[in-house]
């Protein structure tokens, strides 16, 4: 297919006249039959790549995705774009619906699936009976950062791909160091894959860190930011409870339209919050990292981390939700000395000592069910015939890697020199020359006015008390 | 709080927590149904389906710590004096559902999912909008709604739905009608979450959960009286004629034709105990059950005498019967208990 034809398709199907950076290059390589690892910055329309390839190549496009909520977002987005032949195969589907889906795979074009679901024999068997246009591993960095002790099923993807007859493969991620890229292609068994790499740098996002004395100062600073800086804003937390509490507190303190978003909400509430945010009905979302992976809102002006992200790669992903319209935006970390211990505690949750690992192997040999999350992870290794020594080594290596990741993050947080340079060096990139629109250096004020990020008037909230009017607006045209 | 609604399920006499839990999550064994009958909460059968046992038990423990409940023996709880005062207050303050019994015969949760998407589709279509995020991506729900919409689409659909919803909502207090409308999802209106509605109406978030569930039930009842409504077509396949299971219903029919229980068991290739369980299920779920065909006047007199001094029938024990009638099967004792419960 020529570039001209691809441009025509882009215009006809999506109404765009030009490709975003990297899209055309990746699509062309895939259409030439090559496997591709694409590292493209957040907000560059990665899903358009497999949609467009899917519309040209016959067969099913299988997209492996790490989270159910993300899959549901992706299905809803394709539905929104008018693509009806799309489904997510998740554990939440009723058995009958799932069977029906597996028996009618030829009637759909895009199938979203988690690695755990993909490794189920019934699913795998059904997939071997239909031609595959493309095998997509979305958020492919999960293979490395989530792999060894958090989502072990990601480790099976290489073998699953072989079982599926080594279909043409697209690995997508927004952030990957050289080490992670090596991990991805090795684990998936595609060492010869073409690598299309674009910078993780988002020059329109101003980088800042506020070092504060205690929790009270942090809250005060948060309030000051959401009332003083242009929104819409996302504030990230590491716990659901804190998310709810701070959302309530901010709403009371500021009168702004604030909502909490986390995995503890019902699917219906998650849908409503996302849609309200997209429609501009909310000023601030307080969220756990569950929010945003599938969000495509171009005008998010500020991303605040109330708690530290777990790694720099996660950080780049999360702030990447800001400023997709290319306009200036602000990424801010609120840091109190010792916050890094919260990350350590989270890392601990998925760690295990050699003694604990040996005990768990004992549990496995006595055919007792795994009782903890770590135990469930270990179960995967025992079922795959690993021995205690190998697994202990793996866990130790992983713990060291996590500590290294944390140190890299802390180097960014505590840097007294250009933060963008610290971040880009971590991703093996060269930083551009620092200027006043780049990042906040130690002690410097936030250049809100220069960036055009000073908040203007707060919108007033009105709710309709007349339900008949509201009902007629929903169902009657011209009302 | 969830705990408020749990406190409402206990009484000054001991109740088995697990029994109540099984009623709420919709377990239909005879022992669960019997617990629901004697505890007066059978109308809530299946109405808190998704709540895990741990959450339920943790809540009862919390109520004990708070001094509202006390546990006379393992697994049993009863109200303290403080708990009784608290419970009286809650009955006035918290929204009390009126149509939960709908859960016994209708797949309420399924209808909630289908109708939510159906109303969104109709609303968007009314404004000629075909680019929107569907409220659910469940392929089963999508397929059912799609088939329904194909059958009913047309310029009259949205005005008809509007008129019908308006007619239904007019039968409700203003607060409930507003909650119903504001929680809908449709054209340029994502709808409000339970937490947002709770803040707006000055209620607890859990009350919104209860209110919205009850609104769905009340709407279902309304639709059952208006089968010409287009949404009835989505509801009809989810409605059962009776709360009794099909198999128990079959046993009942044979029994009403005058069958002897052992003969029914043989014909239906069931154990005699299963046939008896079926009849107990019917007796619990239908007050008009013909008790007199199984309990002779002599037996009724005998059992009445045994329990003459025990008005609280949850305190009756089978060994009290065995002392005077060692041959009597447990089935007749339980049936007598159910009859008393239904008719006293």
Automatic annotation (TrEMBL), chain A:
Keyword S-adenosyl-L-methionine attached: no
Transmembrane residue ranges:
none
UniProt keyword DNA-binding present: yes
- Gene Ontology cellular component terms for the protein in this record: bacterial nucleoid; cytoplasm; replisome
Domain (Helicase C-terminal): give its ranges.
221-365
For this UniProt record, give its keywords in alphabetical order, as a comma-separated list. Answer: ATP-binding, DNA-binding, Helicase, Hydrolase, Nucleotide-binding
Q: Which GO terms describe its biological process?
A: DNA recombination; DNA repair
What are the residue boundaries of the Helicase ATP-binding domain, all occurrences included? 27-194
Q: Which GO terms describe its molecular function?
A: 3'-5' DNA helicase activity; ATP binding; DNA binding; four-way junction helicase activity; hydrolase activity
Which NCBIfam families does UniProt cross-reference here? recQ_fam (TIGR00614)
Annotated protein name in UniProt: ATP-dependent DNA helicase RecQ
What lineage is on file?
A: Bacteria, Bacillati, Bacillota, Bacilli, Lactobacillales
From TrEMBL, chain B:
Q: Where is the Helicase Helix-turn-helix domain?
A: 247-336
Q: One Pfam annotation, family name?
A: HTH_40
Q: What is this protein called?
A: Helicase Helix-turn-helix domain-containing protein
């Amino acid at each position: 297919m020529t570039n001209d034809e691809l441009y025509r398709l882009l215009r006809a199907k999506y109404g765009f006249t030009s490709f975003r950076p990297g899209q055309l290059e990746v699509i062309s390589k895939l259409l030439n039959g090559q496997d591709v690892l694409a590292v493209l910055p957040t907000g560059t329309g990665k899903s358009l790549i497999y949609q467009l390839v899917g519309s040209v190549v016959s067969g099913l496009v299988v997209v492996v995705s790490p989270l159910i909520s993300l899959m549901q977002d992706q299905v809803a987005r394709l539905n929104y774009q008018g693509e009806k032949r799309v489904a997510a195969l998740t554990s939440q589907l009723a058995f009958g619906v799932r069977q029906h889906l597996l028996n009618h795979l030829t009637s759909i074009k895009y199938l979203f699936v988690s690695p755990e679901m993909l490794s189920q024999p019934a699913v795998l068997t059904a997939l071997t009976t239909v031609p595959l246009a493309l095998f997509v591993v979305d958020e492919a960095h999960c293979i490395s950062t989530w792999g060894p002790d958090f989502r072990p099923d990601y480790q099976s993807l290489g073998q699953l791909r072989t079982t599926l007859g080594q279909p043409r493969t697209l690995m997508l991620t927004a952030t990957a160091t050289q080490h992670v890229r090596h991990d991805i292609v090795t684990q998936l068994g595609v060492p010869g894959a073409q690598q299309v790499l674009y910078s993780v740098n988002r020059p329109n996002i101003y980088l800042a860190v506020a070092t504060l004395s205690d929790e009270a100062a942090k809250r005060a600073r948060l309030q000051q930011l959401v009332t003083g800086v242009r929104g819409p804003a996302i504030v990230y937390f590491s716990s659901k409870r804190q998310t709810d509490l701070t959302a309530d507190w901010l709403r009371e303190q500021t009168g702004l339209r604030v909502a909490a978003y986390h995995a503890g909400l019902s699917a219906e509430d998650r849908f409503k919050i996302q849609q309200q945010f997209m429609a501009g009905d909310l000023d601030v979302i307080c969220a756990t990292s569950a929010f945003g992976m599938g969000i495509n809102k171009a005008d998010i002006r500020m991303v605040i981390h109330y708690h530290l992200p777990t790694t720099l790669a996660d950080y780049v992903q999360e702030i990447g939700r800001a400023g997709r319209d290319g306009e200036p935006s602000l990424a801010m970390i609120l840091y109190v000395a010792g916050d890094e211990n919260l990350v350590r505690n989270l890392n601990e949750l998925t760690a295990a000592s050699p003694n604990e690992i040996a005990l768990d192997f004992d549990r496995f040999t006595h055919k007792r069910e795994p009782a903890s999350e770590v135990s469930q992870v270990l179960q995967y290794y025992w079922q795959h015939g690993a021995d205690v020594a190998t697994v202990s080594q793996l866990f130790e290596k992983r713990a060291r890697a996590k500590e290294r990741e944390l140190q890299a993050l802390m180097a960014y947080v505590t840097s007294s020199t250009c933060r963008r340079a610290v971040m880009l060096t971590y991703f093996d990139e060269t930083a551009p020359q620092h200027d006043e629109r780049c990042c906040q250096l130690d002690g410097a004020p936030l250049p809100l006015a220069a960036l055009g990020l000073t908040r203007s008037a707060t919108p007033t909230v009105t709710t309709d008390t007349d339900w008949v009017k509201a009902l007629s607006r929903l169902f009657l045209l011209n009302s | 709080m969830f705990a408020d609604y749990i406190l409402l399920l206990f009484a000054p006499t001991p109740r088995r927590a697990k029994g109540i839990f099984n009623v709420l999550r919709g377990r239909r064994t005879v022992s669960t149904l019997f617990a629901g009958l004697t505890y007066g909460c059978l109308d809530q059968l299946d109405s808190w389906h998704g709540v895990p046992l741990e959450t339920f038990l943790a809540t009862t423990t919390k109520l004990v710590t708070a001094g509202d409940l006390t546990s006379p023996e393992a697994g049993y709880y009863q109200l303290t004096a403080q708990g009784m005062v608290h419970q009286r207050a809650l009955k006035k303050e918290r929204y009390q559902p009126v149509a939960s019994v709908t859960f016994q015969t209708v797949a309420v949760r399924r209808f909630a999912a289908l109708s939510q998407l159906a109303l969104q589709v109709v609303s968007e279509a009314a404004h000629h909008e075909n680019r929107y995020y569907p409220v659910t991506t469940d392929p089963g729900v999508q397929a059912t709604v799609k088939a329904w919409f194909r059958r009913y689409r047309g310029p009259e659909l949205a005005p008809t739905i509007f008129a019908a919803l308006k007619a239904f909502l007019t039968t409700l207090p203003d607060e409930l009608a507003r909650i119903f409308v504001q929680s809908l999802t449709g054209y340029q209106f994502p709808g409000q979450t339970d937490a947002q509605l709770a803040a707006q109406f000055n209620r607890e978030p859990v009350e919104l959960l209860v209110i919205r569930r009850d609104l769905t039930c009340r709407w279902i009842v309304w639709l059952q009286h208006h089968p010409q409504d287009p949404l009835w077509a989505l509801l009809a396949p989810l409605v059962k004629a009776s709360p009794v299971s099909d198999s128990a219903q079959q046993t009942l029919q044979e029994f009403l034709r005058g069958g002897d229980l052992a003969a029914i068991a043989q014909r239906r290739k069931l154990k005699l105990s299963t046939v008896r369980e079926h009849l107990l299920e019917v007796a619990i779920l239908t007050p008009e059950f013909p008790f007199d065909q199984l309990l002779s006047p002599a037996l009724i007199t005998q059992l009445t005498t045994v329990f003459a001094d025990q008005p609280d029938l949850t305190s009756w024990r089978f060994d009290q019967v065995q002392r005077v009638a060692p041959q009597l099967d447990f089935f007749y004792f339980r049936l007598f208990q159910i009859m008393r419960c239904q008719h006293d």
